[in-house]
Every structure is written in structure tokens, then in C-alpha cells.
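SEQUENCE-TO-STRUCTURE ENTRY
===========================
Question of interest: how does this chain fold, as expressed in C-alpha cells?
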Amino acid sequence: MKKVVYFLVIIISFIIIRNLTYSIYSLLQKDNLIENARQELYNQQNKNQALKSSLKEAETKSFIEKEARDKLFLVKPDEHDVLISKSLVVKDNSLFNKKKTIPNWKAWLDLFF
């Protein structure tokens, strides 16, 4: 009879230890989950702050005027819009990017003589 009680106590102790171990493991996992949620909250707060500052900038009169000029091509009442013909627009930038490939000694010689 004592052996049966002894085995029951050991089995019950084993079950209690297993349950406690599982509870500790579960709490550690939840702690990691909470830490990840805090990090995500911090990131979202930073993003929210940046968006608020962007909104505050977008509500300024100078920003609205700049966007109206750049994107909507609007002008003030006392200004005139200038239209440039497509034929005047240079499409080939190579005219401006040509470099002379003469040696340095010849460039110096041309400079002084």
C-alpha cells in the first residue's frame, strides 16, 4: 500500500512539474510577444509623428502655393505664364557634355601662345 501511495505521489509531482514547466514556457513566449508588440507600437508612433509633421507642413500656405505652381501649373493674378515651344527644347544633352580631348600640354600651350 505504501508503494502505491509513493508512486501516486511521484506521478502527481511529475504532472505538477510538467504543468509548471509548460506555464513558465508559455509566459516566456507571451513576454516575447509583448516585447514585439511594444517595438511595433514604437515604430508606429514614430511613423505617426512623421506623418503629423508632414501634414503640418502640407497645410502651410507656402507648400500649397508651391504644389499649385508645380503640379497644377497655376499662376498668381499678376503673373504671366510662359510657354516654350518644343522645337526650342534641346533633347540631346551631348551638346553640353562634349569635352575636349586634347592633351594638357597642348591646352597650356594654346593658353599662353
Observations:
- The chain is about 70% helix and 0% strand.
